[in-house]
Amino acid sequence: MSRPPRLRIAVQKSGRLADKSQSLIEAAGFRVVKGANDLLYKIENAPIDLLRVRDDDIPTFVGDGVADFGIVGRNVLEERSEGAPPVEVMPLGFGRCELRIAAPKGFDYAGPRSLEGKRIATSYPNVLKKFLKRNDIRADIVTMRGAVEVAPRLKLAQVICDLVSTGATLETNGLESVETILESEAVLVRCRTLSDPALESLAESLIARIRGVSASRDAKYVMMNAPRARLEELTAILPGADAPTVTPLAGREDIVAVHAVCQESVFWETLERLKAAGASAILVLPIEKMM
Ligand code: ATP
Ligand code: ZN
């Protein structure tokens, strides 16, 4: 008798995306338990396994169907050059960074043209090649596995193309970014065909739950009392809210209670604007789950 099929999700084993990928899966209601080895963790309450690997292997594993799903940076996905491409399901809102061209301070950069004939060091030769081609620039690419930022000092290259989140590494190496060639964040990807068709409904539920967790992360439930006459103006201030629920208040003709789900962050500035437009008793509540 064959064993029932299990859905496989490839996640980074250790590194910048590892903890957040696992937390996301846990927030979606799946309890992760360590397996007998480091490579495979199990989900206790669903037939799912986490395949824990280096992030660079995730696009190929998912593309080839070794894993059904994967969580990986868009930068790694774009760099993939062989095999079938995985299908992008949704961006996940963490692991944000940019792939940028950076040059030594004082380098006279006047757009991609300035890269013509230069040597550029990078760990992302394929993404860089595509950028150069788009801009019709010929340059030499020096591929390095890491420590790209030291290349100009070692005279290995005049310019680099590297991942940047805060820019601190560039700064300490006397470099400044001159161009962004890719904006990246972690994305959920899936293979074109699941390893077993019986896993389809589990796959759909996984996607729906992850969508729910991502959506509810910034979302807030806002309640307030509002002058009926200014309802339209007030609703327009609420960030990313669909039609709000409007309820009459006992004994008040002029004021109504307004409840709305805001899909985006609600800042103090928003509350101040609501108040200025006549709202009172404003409450902002977190949302735990959304579907
Ligand atoms: P692995 O051992 O899995 O190959 P790695 O060293 O290639 O790990 P990490 O440094 O852990 O990768 O980064 C993983 C991903 O995190 C990157 O591919 C990128 O999508 C994202 N990331 C976010 N901010 C940064 C940053 N400042 N520098 C590098 N990567 C970042
Ligand atoms: Zn890597």
General description of the model:
The protein has about 290 residues and is an alpha+beta fold. The protein has 3 domains: about 5-95 and about 185-215, 3-Layer(aba) Sandwich (D-Maltodextrin-Binding Protein, domain 2); about 95-185, 3-Layer(aba) Sandwich (D-Maltodextrin-Binding Protein, domain 2); about 220-285, Alpha-Beta Plaits, CATH 3.30.70. The chain is built from 8 helices and 16 strands. The strands form 3 sheets. A 7-stranded mixed sheet has the order 2-3-4-1-5-12-6, sandwiched between helices. Strands 9-8-10-7-11 form a 5-stranded mixed sheet. The protein has a 4-stranded antiparallel sheet with strand order 14-15-13-16. Helix 4 (about 125-135) links the parallel strand 8 and strand 9 (about 140-145). The longest helix is centred in the last third of the chain and has 19 residues, at about 200-220. The chain is flat, with a radius of gyration of 24 Å. It binds adenosine-5'-triphosphate (ATP) and zinc ion (ZN). Adenosine-5'-triphosphate binds near residues 17, 97, 163 and 184.
Question: Could you report the average pLDDT, rounded to the nearest whole number?
Answer: 95
Query: In angstroms, what separates the terminal alpha carbons?
Result: 37 Å
Any low-confidence stretches, pLDDT <50, length ≥5? none
Any idea what the shape is?
flat
At the first level of CATH, the class of the largest domain is Alpha Beta
CATH second-level architecture of the largest domain: 3-Layer(aba) Sandwich
Number of DSSP-assigned strands: 16
Specify the helix fraction band: 25-40%
What is the alpha-carbon Rg in Å? 24 Å
